[in-house]
Amino acid sequence: MDLIGGCRAFVGVSETGSFTRGAAAAGIPQSVASRRIAALERHLGERLFDRSARRAGLTPFGRDMLPSAQRLVRLADAMEQDAKRARLRPLRVAVPETCTTRALAELDAEARAYDMFLEFRPAAPGDRAELVRDHDVRAAVTAVPAEDGTWTVPLGVAGATRLHPGPVHLETLRVGRHGRLPRRRVWLQPEDDVPHVRDRLMRVRDAVGLQPAQVAVADSLTGAAADVLGSGDLLLCSTAQARELGLHWRPLGELRLARGYAVTAVLGADGERLRTRLWDAVAQCLGAEVPGDGRTGGGAADRTGGGAADGAADRTEHGATGKAGRG
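The structure assignment produced for this chain is given below.
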């Protein structure tokens, strides 16, 4: 039987002295209140009310049982309130530092449509999974190789000046024999200081004969962007970031690079909700590829005419350096 429902009806009728008013207090029809009280009496084995009088008076057994019924109803009410607060408790998520305030706000707004309230903790790639392990957050968008990712963000290079059409080949950044040309660099932001991005780019750097300092990891995205805006240097970034920074973006000629992202969560249900219900919103936040519409979540068709890598093969890592196209 519905013990709590029966106790609610019992308490409501006992406090008002009327089955009609008691049912109204419990928010149920009188017929339902009568059935629930009758079921409770059968369950407890004794009458709770003296039905011979016009007023719904308690029997001695009913008076003895009323305090327990009141406690049970109060506990049930408290449990419902606790459940409501738990549902509204923010889901703390560690996210890439590259996510903009606007993108995170849109993700949070989308989550609220599913009664999810998100709280964000921007962190570096190496810190996000650790925050989950330490239970400082309940979930994290973690960096993984692109082929293992739930979301994928194509990368290219962007500069402050307009670049020639087509992919940018790193070999064109090589300093001439007499060192007369300025040494241009490619800056990696901290979000890309991960082996599946950094190490592949460094191997191409060495293969095409660039100096070690020509591909470097910046201390921050702000610092890297400042270097690029004030020189002919290039920033490894997504199209969404290039558009945000006002840079001209092109894919790389020698290899394809992409960020991969997955979800790590303390509770599997939290991770599943991020991966399924909020897939599109997370993709938009990351600037990730959205299958089927030929664009990235951050908008691939930026003002520079750049876009996702256009099929250039990863030739350098297979022993051949591409020659077509110049940056």
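Interim note for the steering committee: Confidence is low (pLDDT under 50) at residues 298-327. DSSP finds eleven helices and 13 strands in the chain.
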